[in-house]
Amino acid sequence: MEHSHTPIIKIENLNFRYDRERVLEDINLTIPRGSFLGIVGPNGSGKSTLLKLMLGLLKVKQGEIELFGIPQQKFRQWDRIGFVSQKANSFNTGFPATVYEVVASGLAKKAGMFKRISAKYRKDIVEAIESVGMTPFSGRNIGELSGGQQQRVFIARALVSKPDVLILDEPTVGVDSKNVQTFYGMLDHLNKDIGITLLLVTHDIGSISSKVTHVACLNKHLHFHGKTEEFEKLKESEMSSFYGHDVHFLNHEHDHH
After folding, report:
1. How far apart are the C-alpha atoms of 18 and 173, rounded to whole Å?
2. CA 202 to CA 173: how far, in whole Å?
3. What is the pLDDT of residue 250?
């Protein structure tokens, strides 16, 4: 029986290697229901590998992952976990599908193909589009939208099957900086108003630190995991040693190199 305090994801003593290269070492991480976790770390720190292990795309060989209190090997309710990959927004502009159809395709497993989606599901599709603020674009071709708008559509597609948790891999790649804050505001709405647990891999902890409830810093090891306010108290020098270069917590519009 699943209790409300059962964590959505629990990872214990997880290690992972590709051939000889150790990518993750001794990861212990609990993601409580209703939280908004930002996972940060330099390139090659194992962030994508960690996501793939959670999603069952890579096999856990050392350590354990539990999803909703069930060992991952026995877990079958994958519609409870929504995933939006980085590749979601590299869409061919000529792709002949409307926003409504793309979101509807998220129900293909439940409803058969979207040529004949019953009225029962129409409400879910309309609500998913509304929850990401894309209602006015419902009939528009996906290829005509900006990167940020496309990314919202893919989030709606992941939301249409009503998952409990949404996992996003670098969702603001391809979103221009002036729209990034609005985009994070939309995620904040999904988390606080709709109650979806969010897990976000990001390079840009400055922009999102006001929205996330917890932060995990990954660089093969988990160097920090805790509430956002504890994270913000870390000295820049501690973070720089973790990243291997200087880190500044600025809500920066642009990176200056």
Report:
1. 26
2. 9
3. 45
In a domain, 218, yes or no: yes
Structure tokens at 128: 């998913």
Q: Looking at residue 198, which CATH number applies to its domain?
A: 3.40.50.300
Global pTM value: 0.85
Say how many Å lie between the first and final Cα of the chain, rounded: 52
Q: Beta strand pairing status for 81-84 and 9-18?
A: unpaired
Most confident of 18-22, 65-69, 231-235: 65-69
**How far from 153 is each of 46, 55, 159, 250, CA to CA, in Å?**
27, 21, 10, 29
* Residues 164 and 158 sit within 8 Å (Cβ to Cβ): no
Tell me the two tokens of residue 44: 């090659």
Would you say residue 117 lies in a domain?
no
pLDDT mean over 218-239: 82
Tracing tokens 């999102």 back to the chain, one arrives at 208
Block residue for tokens 């940060």: 40
Structural domain that includes position 31: 9-89+165-243
- Per-residue tokens: 222: 């988990």
Tell me whether residue 29 is in a domain: yes
Select from 173, 205, 195, 169 the least CA-distant residue to 46: 169
Altogether, the residues listed in the chain come to a count of 257
Residue 30 buriedness (CB in 10 A; 0-12 / 13-18 / 19+): middle
Question: In angstroms, rounded to a whole number, what is the distance separating the alpha carbons of residues 246 and 243?
Answer: 7
Task: Evaluate whether 59 touches 177 at the Cβ level (below 8 Å).
Answer: no
Domain count, the chain: 1
Q: Is residue 220 part of a domain?
A: yes
What are the pLDDT digits (tens) for 133-187?
999 999 999 888 888 888 899 999 999 989 999 999 988 887 887 788 888 899 9
